[in-house]
TrEMBL record:
Residues 60-153 form the Bacterial SCP orthologue domain. This is Bacterial SCP orthologue domain-containing protein. It comes from the Bacteria. Pfam families: SCP_3. InterPro entries: SCP_3. Gene3D superfamilies: 3.30.1050.40. It comes from Bifidobacterium tibiigranuli.
Length: 156
């Protein structure tokens, strides 16, 4: 099953853009104009903490469409049956080459679970995979548990 219905693609793209703009506004209000400053030294720890807490106050339907559309983009960037990416409660997709699901289990050997705010921060380049993983915001099981080469999907 697709992460987003074809008829909702335009609305999903708009929702992801709206989320990214709201996130950028939140960062700018904290004095952080660039969403791509990695954690590199103690001087940037405060900046990273702010970026790791970005969660715009938008209606649930915007969040849902933004998540579904961004997962659609991920699925198009790296098609395959090997890794399941779950962003509950709105969608899950299978990506990357590798062993397919066990016919009795239907879950691939590699599973990554993220909260919607974590996923959208990653998809929009607000935070990096390493930052979120270090902060304990990513649950990943399997050999292919690092999506950093595929992210960000869009620029905030």
């Amino acid at each position: 099953m697709a992460a987003i219905r074809e008829q909702d693609l335009a609305a999903g793209k708009a929702a992801l853009h709206q989320w990214a703009q709201a996130a950028q506004t939140a960062l700018e209000s904290q004095g952080l104009p660039s969403p791509t400053v990695p954690i590199a030294s103690p001087a940037t720890q405060t900046d990273a903490a702010v970026r790791l807490s970005v969660s715009p106050d938008l209606p649930r339907p915007i969040w849902a469409l933004a998540v579904r559309y961004s997962l659609f983009l991920l699925e198009r960037r790296a098609p395959g049956p090997g890794v399941e990416v779950r962003v509950a409660p709105w969608a899950a997709v299978k990506i990357l080459d590798g062993p397919a699901s066990d016919p009795h289990n239907l879950t691939p050997p590699d599973v990554i679970e993220l909260d919607p705010d974590v996923w959208l921060r990653l998809a929009c380049g607000i935070t990096t995979w390493d930052e979120e993983k270090t902060a304990g915001h990513i649950s990943a099981v399997g050999e292919r548990d690092d999506l950093s080469p595929l992210l960000p999907l869009v620029a905030a």
